[in-house]
Amino acid sequence: MSENNLGKCILIYEDDQEILLLCKTLLLKSQYRVATLSRCENVIGDKEMLKPNLVLMDLWIPEIGGEKAISIIKENPATSHIPVLVFSANTDIIEICKKINADGYIAKPFDIHTFKETIEQNI
Question: Do the Cβ atoms of 43 and 69 come closer than 8 Å?
């Protein structure tokens, strides 16, 4: 556990409660603050309120969907600096990631070591 993680916030947009619980547990053990949302209708407002250091975005999240939500984050000068990782089981994850200017991805199902490593590299 790194004390450098204290205070860093990871925002996860995911509507699968089991995946959310697993991710939240892993990240809390690494001393991150974790915020979770199951909808993405107000991504800019969410960023202003929660001030995340990193966002994990499921592509099939209710409301506007992950692709549109990431595009909104990356096109807004106030939020474009926040790293956003696509978090999905979509087989086209790499192409989607490039198309919407995401900073990277975590493919589902994921290996715990790879999950933690990818978070560390992007926060």
Answer: yes
Structural domains in the chain plus CATH codes? 6-114 (3.40.50.2300)
Find the DSSP H helices in 2-111.
Answer: 17-29, 43-50, 66-75, 93-99
d(CA 120, CA 117): 5
Three-state DSSP at 83 gives: coil
The CA–CA distances, whole Å, from 33 to 8, 26, 46, 108 equal 6, 11, 15, 22
The per-residue pLDDT for range 70-113, each reduced to its tens digit, is 999 999 999 999 999 999 999 999 999 999 999 999 999 999 99
Q: What would you report as the CA-atom Rg of the chain, rounded to the nearest whole angstrom?
A: 13
